[in-house]
Design a protein that fits this description.
The chain has two domains: 45 residues, Homeodomain-like (Arc Repressor Mutant, subunit A), CATH 1.10.10.60; 138 residues. α5 runs parallel beside α8. It is built from nine helices and no strands. With 207 residues, it is mainly α.
């Protein structure tokens, strides 16, 4: 018999508790620790409830990723509309918790195609938000960047993530110099921006 689709479970307190438990396990012990038995024990419910709310573990991992992704998109969109979007991008790229969780999801995605597809879609969406926000910021300031906004976002995200990942295995060669270089660039860029007038967008013309 085909299992009936359950309705109205997205906001269930139990479902949220299961996702919270799965996220805690992944963050503290890695994705391999995220099993229905461990999730149930951590959430204080029977393991069978995991499969009541999520037909498969793929469904659970995708739901967990989507929840984090939506939060990440909201935070990124807010930060990128600040007066210093480059610094916001740099700070976000070096968040140890985010980098660690992203690494766990990347490793998990190697074994779960459905999650890999979902992560790719989210990555493109996030990069587009960052790229467009930078482009708007440069336009408002009348800046013609030598490096395109898309390339800037990739470089910042890549460098920041590598610094965090290498630090977790006690690698530090050139880290201090690299951080100093980026910080110096950001300070000089922000100082130059401070003296530029902000260009107001043109009002649409009638007809």
């Amino acid at each position: 018999m085909t299992r009936r689709q359950k309705v109205g479970l997205e906001s269930s307190a139990t479902r949220i508790a299961l996702l919270d438990a799965a996220e805690l396990l992944m963050r503290e012990e890695g994705y391999a620790a995220v099993t229905s038995r461990r999730i149930g024990a951590t959430a204080g419910v029977k393991p069978q409830l995991v499969h009541y709310y999520f037909r498969t573990m793929d469904d659970l991992f995708i739901a967990l990723f989507q929840r984090r992704a939506e939060r990440g998109v909201e935070a990124a969109a807010q930060a990128m509309e600040s007066d210093t979007p480059l610094r916001a991008l740099w700070d976000q790229s070096r968040d140890p918790t985010d980098v660690a969780m992203n690494l766990e999801f990347m490793a998990l995605a190697n074994h779960r195609k459905a999650l890999r597809v979902e992560m790719g879609l989210f990555g493109e969406r996030l990069r587009k938000i960052q790229q467009d926000a930078l482009a708007r910021h440069f336009q408002r300031r009348g800046i013609d960047p030598q490096i395109s906004p898309g390339v800037v976002t990739l470089i910042m995200a890549g460098v920041g993530s590598v610094l965090v990942l290498e630090a977790t295995i006690n690698m530090s060669n050139a880290h201090e110099a690299t951080e100093a270089l980026v910080e110096d660039y950001l300070r000089r860029f922000e100082a130059a921006e401070a003296v530029l007038p902000q260009i107001k967008p043109r009002a649409p013309t009638a007809g």
